[in-house]
């Protein structure tokens, strides 16, 4: 058996044997490196598994509910889990639940969320920011946020966000446009949330009626088990009321006060250079750039020699191995199948 193996190996040239040994060594080194130095991805996976194992073991707790910003289809069950379980993360504002639609009549006060967005060119961004803040206070509003920063040279840009009462939105918007040298863009959007507002009010009314019934039952409860069960129901109902009331308060704040966002930019000013041209400074900067470029090239060359070339050697060896095997098989097949002598042609009559 050893002689047969030796005869089989002797058929291959010495260069092919060396290439095979190099490939095997490279594969062994890669396996050992993977074992001794695990990748960051596996480490992060282990950390995620440990965090999941360390999640609080609370009845009714659902990690997908507390970490996801979307609302599942079974919102009612999720809401009950949130209410019955201890508060782990703040719950998002729930959407309007079906089955509690209120009726919008002609006497219902409209609830509209209105926002405005302006892009203005002004003489001075700092002065314009102060003027917009004064306009907001004059109309009974306030400045939500503002920022002024330099872009190039003495040019400044900035933005201001203010909130004004809904009924004074148009007046404040007009006053702001008067300070502009040019209005680059103007956008006004309005969203009618009257139906949702009425639906939420109807939900609160139904929940409060349910809460009152449970309180009456609590007064007649005698057994401790009954008292605990009714208390649990009261907690659930109160949790629903608080969630719906939070959404209702949010809509009220958005409809009572309208948001206006103003982006400011200054009129371009052409300024002539004050300093004289110095050729020596230009030459020094050019030489500095040349040295930095040469350093970058040398760095790239070092990385190419140390990293790229060794990484390509196994690939080149494997390709050469495949080429050699295919070439050998092709020669053998050609010698056996296509090297037969063709039969002589019959003499012409």
Layout of helices and strands, plus pairs?
Elements: H1 2-10, H2 14-36, H3 40-53, H4 63-67, H5 75-84, E1 112-122, H6 125-138, E2 142-150, E3 156-165, H7 169-178, E4 182-192, H8 194-220, H9 224-256, E5 257-266, H10 279-337
Parallel strand pairs: 1-5
Antiparallel strand pairs: 1-4, 2-3, 3-5
Helix pairs in contact: 2-10, 5-9, 8-9
What does this protein look like?
By secondary structure, the chain is α+β, with helices and mostly antiparallel strands. Among the domains are: 41 residues, no CATH class; 161 residues, no CATH class. 58% of the residues lie in helices and 15% in strands. The chain is built from ten helices and five strands, in the order αααααβαββαβααβα. It has a five-stranded mixed sheet with strand order 2-3-5-1-4.
Attribute tags:
349 residues; alpha+beta; 5-stranded mixed beta sheet; 58% helix; 15% strand
Residue share in β-strands = 5-15%
Global mean pLDDT? 75
Structural class: alpha+beta
Number of distinct helices: 10
The shape is: flat
Helix content: 55-70%
* Strand order of the biggest β-sheet: 2-3-5-1-4
Task: Give the total of beta strands.
Answer: 5
Short description:
By secondary structure, the protein is an alpha+beta fold. It has helices at residues 2-10, 14-36, 40-53, 63-67, 75-84, 125-138, 169-178, 194-220, 224-256, 279-337, and strands at residues 112-122, 142-150, 156-165, 182-192, 257-266. A 5-stranded mixed β-sheet has the order 2-3-5-1-4.
């Amino acid at each position: 058996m050893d002689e047969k193996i030796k005869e089989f190996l002797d058929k291959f040239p010495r260069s092919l044997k060396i290439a095979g040994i190099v490939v095997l060594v490279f594969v062994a080194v890669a396996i050992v490196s993977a074992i001794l130095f695990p990748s960051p991805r596996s480490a992060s996976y282990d950390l995620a598994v440990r965090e999941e194992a360390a999640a609080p073991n609370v009845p009714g707790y659902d990690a997908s509910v507390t970490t996801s910003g979307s609302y599942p289809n079974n919102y009612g069950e999720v809401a009950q889990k949130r209410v019955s379980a201890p508060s782990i993360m703040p719950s998002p504002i729930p959407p309007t639940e079906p089955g509690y639609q209120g009726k919008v009549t002609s006497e219902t006060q409209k609830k509209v969320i209105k926002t405005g967005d302006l892009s203005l060119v002004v003489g001075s961004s700092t002065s314009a920011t102060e003027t917009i803040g004064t306009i907001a206070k004059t109309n009974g509003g306030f400045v939500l946020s503002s920022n002024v920063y330099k872009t190039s040279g003495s040019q400044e840009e900035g933005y201001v966000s203010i909130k004004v009462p809904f009924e004074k939105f148009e007046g404040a918007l007009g006053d702001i446009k008067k300070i502009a040298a040019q209005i680059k863009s103007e956008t006004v959007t309005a969203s009618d949330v009257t139906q949702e507002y009425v639906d939420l009010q109807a939900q609160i009314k139904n929940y409060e009626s349910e809460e009152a019934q449970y309180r009456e039952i609590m007064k007649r409860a005698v057994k401790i088990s009954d008292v605990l069960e009714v208390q649990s129901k009261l907690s659930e109902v109160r949790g629903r009321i608080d969630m719906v009331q939070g959404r209702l308060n949010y809509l009220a704040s958005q409809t009572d006060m309208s948001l206006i966002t103003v982006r400011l930019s200054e009129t371009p000013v052409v300024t002539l250079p004050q300093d004289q041209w110095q050729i020596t400074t230009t030459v020094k900067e050019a030489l500095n750039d040349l040295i930095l470029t040469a350093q970058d090239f040398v760095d790239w060359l070092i990385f190419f020699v140390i990293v790229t070339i060794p990484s390509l050697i196994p690939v080149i060896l494997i390709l050469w191995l495949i080429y050699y095997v295919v070439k050998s098989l092709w020669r053998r097949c050609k010698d056996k199948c296509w090297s037969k002598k063709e039969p002589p042609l019959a003499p012409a009559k």
